[in-house]
Amino acid sequence: MKNYKYNELAYAELIYNKGFQTKHVPTELRLLALYYRDVLGYKPKEREEKIYKFCKNNIPNFKKEKFFKPINKALRVASDKKQKFIIIKKIDIFKTELDYINNLDIQYEYKKVMFAFLVQIKLNKIVCEYKYDKEYNSIYFKGGTKKYNNIKKMANIPVKMSINDEVINKLEELKLITILFKGAILLDYINNCIQSEDIVFTITDFENVRLYLDYYNKVKGVKKCDGSCGVIIKIKNNKQKYCNECAEKINIQKTIDNRKNKTV
């Protein structure tokens, strides 16, 4: 399933139209309650009625008493005006940030991990400033298997390469980071990633972060989609021009146009 972590509105709309998407029902109930409030304009009583009806229709053998707590919590969230959807459409990357990382005398795979951390810290900043309504400039990364695996996925380093035992230890050896405890690290090098006025690209696809670095460094087989989206893609052959989504839209439009021409 597509990663909707940074576009909760799109995720909520998917839940509303298609039902629950994962086993994380409490999280999805929260988004659904916000969708009822902000998009459909339902009042508290109506939100409660609709959410119970939704659960009854989308949870096999639904029992009200079993789901009372998560539903009630979701309804409380929707009653708090400070609670809103997290929507991050883009992250700007500056030339000075890339120049610092690119100029380091380390393996390219390590640079991809550093770039992934940089993007993640930028995302964390937006989320935290939104949630707590105050400036956030932390370079602290609290690890854990899931979070480190996400960084590895963003960087797209080889499966056999251990991000903890190999990459993290090497970066500390080079004094680029500081290892703390229980998977926590300080990303010291980010203090050297100065933001200039020169934005080299804007990341809109947070699932394929490393492609942006590859595109900037002119890695073979990586290009910008020729469609309207302009996302960076890994092409399968030299004839490929579009990402999957744009290619599908173009094919659908061609089919529609062909049918129109036949009826003329």
Explain how this protein is built.
- By secondary structure, the protein is mainly alpha-helical.
- It folds into three domains: 8-79, no CATH class; 91-219, no CATH class; 223-263, no CATH class.
- The chain has ten helices and seven strands.
- The protein has helices spanning 8-18, 25-38, 44-58, 68-79, 95-102, 108-132, 145-155, 163-173, 209-216, 244-263; strands at residues 91-94, 140-141, 178-179, 185-186, 199-203, 222-224, 232-234.
- Strands 2-4-3 form a three-stranded antiparallel β-sheet, with helices on one face.
- It is globular and about 60 Å long.
- It starts with 7 loop residues before the first helix and ends with a helix.
Key terms for this structure?
264 residues; 10 helices; mainly alpha; 7 strands; three-stranded antiparallel sheet; 51% helix
| Amino- and carboxy-terminal Cα gap | 41 Å
User: In what order do the strands lie side by side in the largest sheet?
Assistant: 2-4-3
Q: Please tell me how large the radius of gyration is.
A: 22 Å
Portion in helices: 40-55%
* Percentage of residues in strands: 5-15%
The SS-based structural class is: mainly alpha
Multimerization state:
single chain
* Number of helical elements: 10
Report on the biggest sheet: 3 strands, antiparallel
